[in-house]
Amino acid sequence: MNIIALLQCLQPTLTATTIRQFSRIIFALFAMTGRVTMLGISRWAGKGGSYRTIQRWFYTHIPWAQAFVALFRQHLFQPKAIYILAGDEVVVTKAGKQTFGLDRFFSGLLQKVVPGLAFFALSLVNTSDHTSSPIAVEQVVRSKPASIAPLVPVSPTPVVKAKPGRPRGSKNKNKADVTLTPELQQIQAMIQALLLKLAGWLSVTYVALDGHFGNNNALQMVRQCNLHLISKLRSDSALYVPYTGPQAKRGTRRKYGDRVDYRHLPAEYLKQTTVADGIETRTYQATLLHHEFAQPFALRVVIIVKTNLQTQAWAHVILFSSDLTLAWDKLVAYYRLRFQIEFNFRDAKQYWGLEDFMNITETAVTNAANLALFMVNVADCSRRQICPDESAFSVLDLKAYCRGYKYVTETIKMLREKPDPILISEIFRQVACLGSIHNTVAQLSPP
């Protein structure tokens, strides 16, 4: 496993010194145990990876956007595969008061609001092999609230009761002209910048986001990027069938028909019925309207109804897309693939220090978070380089493989005479298997 060769694609972006330091950090992350901090990395980095070197690297400005794209295009991109964009926010709990961007965010994992940092990430999901590769990461920094002016007593003004109904002379508002929130503005800027880097070699059509973005503002934000949104609506959303009956001779043309009753969905909408473990799953598809979404845009809606055949208890999920030609099975499959980005967050927290870093400045926090998610891609590249069958070689096997190499090399340095290469290979196989999960490690040669 040649880490320097793996990072050669970053040469136009990073200096040779930064790449050399980066390679030391990557091998230390592969081999180390315990919390991933600058001090922990320096203890495993070996020669050329002192604490001061690691510290200088973390305080170096690194163009992560170009680095993510360069590594993905060189080592992970499959030209014949179809990719979709998936986006989600990850919250990292932090204590103290000095960390850049520290605020209170809702953690989906803990199901409560916690003090910490938030990062929004975009990933490219391969629809063929169901793998996700982080491609862009940015920190969510909320603006400070304006200072509250002192209260000044004001004489009460008489309250005039408004007339019921719509004011005379008011005009209809175009729901397509929305004012994006700072959150949506940041996401839109990330998507637009990414599309410029992907232009010419990778075409993306869909953006899959969770139910938090199942609203008109998010849909308009995605459509302004010339992409289609795939997301989820609230279970109590009011959907209507497009009206197809006769129109009145005068007045506004009628657009909305009957409201959809989720307990009695029309049979012509049914696409599939399956039964497993006493649970009946019915999948419906229709083109429907929603009052809150801009017209004349209809929604491609897929309604999944699950019924317990024994108790008759039921529940439903409403998925939608702005692409009216998208088939129901692809819509469901693409939304399910959105969850692959959660596995990237899990690996970044469990193995690569997204939850452990103790940096507090803006540059250092940015480097630590991007490094953790960048390591997800580096680990995938290394696993494919060492063992083509990734399913038989996990991240734990990769760490055991590198840790065994580290132990063997440090032990050999203490010997007066270097042992026979065959003996070294056998020692390496035995040591590497100590922390591995699969037996594949025992069949590999030392790096």
Architecture overview:
This protein is an alpha+beta fold and about 450 residues long. It folds into 3 domains: about 220 residues, no CATH class; about 80 residues, no CATH class; about 45 residues, no CATH class. It is built from 12 helices and 12 strands. Strands 1, 2, 3, 4, 5, 6, 7, 8, 9, 10, 11 and 12 form a 12-stranded mixed beta sheet that branches. Strand 3 and strand 4 form a beta hairpin. The termini are close together.
How are the elements arranged and paired?
Blueprint lengths: L2 H4 L9 H16 L6 H8 L5 H8 L5 H13 L6 E11 L9 E5 L4 E15 L4 E10 L41 H17 L7 E3 L7 H8 L4 E6 L5 E4 L13 E4 L10 E7 L2 E12 L8 E10 L5 E8 L6 H10 L2 H11 L11 H25 L8 H19 L7 H12 L15
Parallel strand pairs: 1-5, 5-6
Antiparallel strand pairs: 1-3, 2-3, 3-4, 6-12, 7-8, 7-10, 9-10, 10-11, 11-12
Mind telling me the C-alpha Rg?
27 Å
Percent in strands: 15-25%
Order of helices and strands: HHHHHEEEEHEHEEEEEEEHHHHH
**Structural class based on helices, strands and sheet pairing:** alpha+beta
Q: Residue-averaged pLDDT, rounded?
A: 90
Give the number of domains.
Answer: 3
Would you identify the regions where 5 or more consecutive residues have pLDDT less than 50?
none
Could you tell me how far the N terminus lies from the C terminus, measured between alpha carbons in angstroms? 5 Å
**Helix percentage range:** 25-40%
Largest sheet: 12 strands, mixed
Q: How many individual helices? A: 12
Extended strand count: 12
Shape: globular
